[in-house]
Amino acid sequence: MTAYIIRRVWQMIPTLLGVILLVFILFNWVGGDPAYVLAGKISSAEQIENIRRQLGVDQPFYVQLWIFIKQVLTGDFGASWSTNEAVSHIMATRLGPSLTVLIPLLIISTLVAIGLALAVAYVRGSLTDRAVMIVCTIGLSVSILVYIIVFQYVFAYKLGWFPVQGWGDGFWHNLIVYASLPIIILLVVSVAPDLRLFRTFVLDEINQDYVRTARAKGVSENRIMWVHVLRNASIPIITHVMAQLPGLLIGAFLVERFFSIPGIGREVILAVERSDFPVIKAITVYVAVATMVVNLLTDLMYKAVDPRVQLK
Amino acid sequence: MPYDVPHAVSPGLWALAWRRLRSDRVAMVSLAIVAGFLLMIVLSATGLIAKDWAREEGVNYAPPTFVGPDAATAPAGAVPGAPVAGEPGSTENESDLQIADPLADALAAIKAGATKPGEAPPMPDTKSVDPLADVMADIKAKGAGRADAVATRAATLPFGGDKWGRDVLKKVIKGSQTSIFVGIAAAIVAVFLGSVFGAVAGYYGKWLDDVFNWFYSVFTAIPYLLLILAVAAVLQQKGTLTIILILGLTGWTGVFRLIRGEYLKHKGREYVQAADAIGASNARRMFVHILPNVSHVVLVQLSILTVAFIKSEVILSFLGFGVPVDVVSWGSMLNEAQNELILGKWWQLAAAGTFMALLVTAFSLFTDALRDALDPKLK
Fold this sequence. Notes:
The structure holds 2 protein chains of 2 kinds.
Chain A: H1 2-30, H2 34-37, H3 45-55, H4 61-74, H5 87-122, H6 127-141, H7 144-158, H8 171-178, H9 180-206, H10 209-217, H11 221-251, H12 253-258, H13 264-273, H14 277-305
Helix pairs in contact in A: 1-4, 1-14, 5-9, 5-11, 5-14, 6-9, 7-9, 9-11, 10-11, 11-14, 13-14
Chain B: H1 13-22, H2 25-45, H3 74-78, H4 102-115, H5 133-143, H6 168-204, H7 206-221, H8 224-234, H9 240-250, H10 253-266, H11 270-277, H12 282-319, H13 330-342, H14 347-374
């Protein structure tokens, strides 16, 4: 197991180097001289000169690349170009609000989608099954923007059940007051595709011989679905849920923007609007590392769920 | 066995797939809807319909005809006066509202609404950014005396009007043209890249395969939307071509993996060995012999990516990183609709949302049917 983990971490290095190279080419080469990018955004010539010196714009490309690699290794990406806040501080303070929305969302949506998928797959082919699938297909095709606009208007603006936007202090206060409507919206958006997918995973298992054997032994239907079938269907489900994880951090940006939640996603949008390259670079590299770590965790979870899986 | 039996010609893959597709009612209905959309955007691109979408035909926020004229705007529409409409086409650049606070614009508009007796005439070319909201309200209030300018504008439009009194129905047709065109063009770019990379990696194997796999793992390590946003941040200029390239250059990974797998499988098959034996070159074997045999994968990926890219384009344009401000797309319409809804003007949201939902539903259902028809083993 340890050998496996060490080998996987070792294999991450070329990928991480590739990500660094990609980000470097994008921002230092395609993006060009910060003096042009920031013209009109920062008025102080001295400040721009400072930024150029930090990036080593006048130096050859390999020196600039080394500066960037050092930044990644030390985790010190300098200061934001627009607010002068340290990028590491931005990352640290924005992660909390994002996770306050995302962790409850991920838990609830996975549980709801699994529960519904087992139920719908159990009555497969019936009118209920087809009706749920049609609703899912239509629900999937409506833009997430429409959901956010309409839900915010109806539930927050018209009915006043939730604050229209904002963020406060204290975890529980934020979770109950400010995060609940965003969570509900993302839940509605994410359950439809998850349910469709999980249903096919369950259907792959439901006709297997071991289900028939369990039924013949007199195992209750509930136990068959929740223990026997679910455990076997869980590998693709875990793959799907874990693969979503890093993307969710960014994918929630629309909600964070609409509801003024000071999270990572909103920071990305702000940074893109302001051409705040250090923030985007840092977030891209961190999220890429997170993706690779999550992929490793996913493979380790396979082993925990299914002992037959051989980690090579 | 005589060879002149009447049904000696056995139907090929495409004929069989078409037969299976035709027997699927859902697929045919969705194909008809998709074809209808494509016809619509061709007509709109050639200028046969919705050519004058930017003309200000109705009063500002003209309600749909089936709702009836707004009580507040009806008298204004009836005021007899100079038959001069506002300067048509002068406000095309205003369609992009980038407002951080959805309420700010609403408040400004309400403030302005309190001071004006009739309807405000077309505004000068003002970019409506949050800090300018008060200025805008001033301009509106000053212009209130010129109510005669709107005399010839219709009080209602078939499906309502937007902030400048442009016909929402024409606008959504024009928006469909942009969104669908971007989706299809970007999907073609992505599928082309993915197929060529996948073919080379799968066919040649060895170090080429390693290089492309490394590329693949780098691109998939960064979440797709983040990659798009990073590219959008770097490419400062906005344009339809830019967004097509952004989506196409970042979206090839899924196609690559599938096509690579297919080429790995096919390159050892007998027919490829036979092609090798008669002296076919590597390129000929890759693209003339193997490609037709994996083209069904390419086709299905093309339609999956089209739907995905239409959705991405809508989000990017909504955020203001997508199409330029003088081009209308579903995303830019939804951006305007966000502020309009608070004023109770729901029709632009309904138009853009319905058109998009209809196309995406039809396209997804058709894609599912297409996959089943082309690869019946998958069922």
